[in-house]
Amino acid sequence: MAGHDRAGCIYSLALAWLLGVALVPGPSYGAWNDDWPDRKELKLDPSKQGADLEAAVTEVPVLVRLHSGNFQSFFSLKDGAADLRFVAADGKTVLKHHVEKFDPVNEMALIWVKAPRLAPDEPETVSMYYGNEAAAGADDPAGTYDADQVLVYHFDSVAANWKDATGFGNHPVAPAPVAASSAALVGAGASFAGQGGLSVPASESLQFVPDKGWTFSAWIKVDAPQADAYLLDANGGHQSLVIGIDGSSVYARAVVGGNRHDTARSQIAPGGWHHVALVVFNGKVSLYLDAAETASVEAPLTSASLALTLGASAGGSNPLTAEVDEVQVSRVARNADWLRFAVRSQGADGRVVTYGDEASEGGSTSYFGTILRSVTVDGWVVIFLLAIMAAISWAVMVGKAVLLTRVRKDNQAFLHRFKRINATTADALDQDDEANEDPELRDSALLSALFGKHDHFQSATLYQLYHTGIHDIKERTGRSVGAQQRGLSEHALTGVRAVLDASYVRELQKLNEHMVLLTIAISGGPFLGLLGTVVGVMITFAAIAATGDVNINAIAPGIAAALVATVAGLIVAIPALFGYNYLSAQIRDINADMRAFCDEFMSRIAEQYSN
To answer: Domain containing 37: what range?
Structure first.
């Protein structure tokens, strides 16, 4: 018993320590607006590990990717995420934003937020508020970008819906030869199949002015070498700007009055997404690949209003076969920091945004609470099943412990009486209570132990064996003294032994009744928990792949939540394992007592009744 006490003490201390760690409170949040009860922190990292900024950038659009791995409150959001608000670190300034995609069923959302300023070594915190049922939508696509951003294509999953997200209305014409790609870098994208391009008419906002500059950028994935295909042909009368892909190399070209000015070519790896940008400023045409300037050329460009063709030349030749996403045009020359911020924030590694905890305003959060909030619906289904399994196993353990305690106590009391009986006192010990006993109590060992009469050892398995043996002997010898004196033959004693053995087997079955439920909890609990974990991990990775957010900050919450199912399975199995082993040991002891009693009882019967 001392060993059990020490084990129980150690288990209790370990459980208390785990709960203490899990319930360590996180930061307490202050309210921005009492109508928005829930909040999530988003941290923008300008360091080398994040945006890698060397100079400050202002009014930059930040991509916020929400999925089941980093956000667990999709079903608490209004339709279209109309209740979302983003507030700057001062706790007052509401930032412009717009929702590119919101899918609560598959638990994913893509939101663009306008960050006011981000400087090197100055991390910025943005608070995302939600949970206001009365909130009206605050989507402002045009306000999300600065005044010099004149074209942005997110590429909806339906090609007919493709629109310019800025307020300048530079919408593409009918994209007949171009299809939508459902899984691009950021949500949906455009799939060019080498059949033609996407045209954008010239407009005042697309005007190129040499001393202000001009910037085009896009994400592109090329799976096979191209035959001098055009990603961009910006044509303004006697001059044009081109981004081309020849083989596995990308280049930029300025054509002025029929004279071509080509940059050097830069290799791009096939099958992966790359950010390609063309920056023109004061006669210099620069090509950027993944935010690094790889080539440049001088060209005497003049002011012009540009008409754009994406995926082919203006005449429809040089068609491109590739996937394209996030096409942007600015009427100023963007610097390297701006482009690097776009690459780092939009790319698959998602280095800029770190997703913090979710909490209610005025409250606090904890690691344990964060993990539980991260559990997906399938995880809760598994945990619910495990909770039922745990309740059943605990009921079996408690009930069986009560039964075995009563059995051992009554067995000891019966043995004390049995050692003092003789033939004349046997009937007194074996009073026939069957007529007055409830059959349901008689058939259930546990109910008999809890509610039966114990003055004649109804819970004692030894008494039941004795009771069965005495009744069989009475049937064989009759109740007269003469018949008893004639005794029992050897075959009759064998028959008594068989009846006693049958009663012994039935009593052992009663003792082992429902023990199989503990073995199911021991073996099935961890596997059921593992199933919940595997499904949770699959859903987390699927959501991450769909949003393009592949980084440890996105994966960690979802994986931690998925592991809750495994923990729940172990919580079911471990107590059941300890309980099963303890109860099995008790049943073995009672079994040994019954076997020894059968032998002793038959010895007495043979001495008393053999002829």
So the answer is: 30-148+337-364
